[in-house]
């Protein structure tokens, strides 16, 4: 890791692993009991709400890429027929989201998946990932893929593998953290 100049976030190193699943699971995890949950597919998502979800789910794990998109780029992505976003609500409040992207090669990629801090440790992860996988296969792709890295939740890679994903490659990358000033500026947009 190396630090940046004043006002810039640190540069972090990460090992990225791409995984894939060639057929749907035979079974999906059951809905957790004792917690009120709603999983809703979101159409016409406002940019500010997407940025809020992305930041609240990904801040701890150094997610920055979508925050760096311009309003026009993000609006194009969110309105694309190839993008499918589902938001998890727990006790009526947002608790996480997943984003799927349909790729040209008959591949459905789980682009983003995660829970907000208040929902982690509540026994939701396995069920929620199962719902993301179910939604991906509902698009009838040839395969479903996902990428995770060593900056993500420590259990992420193992959970993907337990759910049936198999690693296909690894590579080293760097990510630049957003400074507090940069993050605040992004989140103040639309």
From TrEMBL:
Occurrences of domain N-acetyltransferase (ranges): 40-190
Swiss-Prot/TrEMBL keywords: Acyltransferase, Transferase
PROSITE patterns named among the record's database cross-references: GNAT
InterPro entries: Acyl_CoA_acyltransferase, Bact_Acetyltransf, GNAT_dom
GO MF entries: acyltransferase activity, transferring groups other than amino-acyl groups
Record flagged with keyword Metal-binding: no
Protein name, entry field: GNAT family N-acetyltransferase
Upper classification of the organism: Bacteria, Pseudomonadati, Pseudomonadota, Alphaproteobacteria, Hyphomicrobiales
């Amino acid at each position: 890791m190396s630090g940046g100049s004043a006002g810039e976030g640190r540069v972090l190193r990460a090992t990225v692993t791409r995984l894939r699943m060639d057929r749907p699971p035979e079974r999906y995890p059951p809905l957790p009991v004792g917690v009120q949950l709603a999983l809703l597919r979101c159409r016409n998502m406002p940019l500010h709400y997407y940025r809020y979800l992305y930041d609240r789910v990904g801040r701890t794990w150094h997610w920055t890429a979508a925050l760096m998109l311009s309003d026009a780029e993000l609006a194009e992505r969110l309105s694309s027929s190839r993008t499918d976003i589902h938001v998890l609500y727990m006790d009526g409040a947002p608790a996480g989201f997943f984003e799927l992207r349909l790729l040209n090669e008959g591949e459905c990629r789980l682009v983003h998946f995660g829970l907000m801090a208040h929902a982690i440790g509540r026994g939701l992860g396995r069920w929620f990932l199962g719902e993301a996988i179910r939604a991906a296969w509902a698009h009838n792709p040839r395969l479903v893929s996902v990428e995770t890295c060593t900056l993500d939740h420590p259990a992420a890679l193992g959970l993907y593998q337990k759910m049936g994903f198999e690693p296909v490659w690894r590579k080293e990358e760097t990510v630049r953290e957003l400074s507090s000033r940069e993050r605040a500026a992004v989140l103040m947009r639309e």
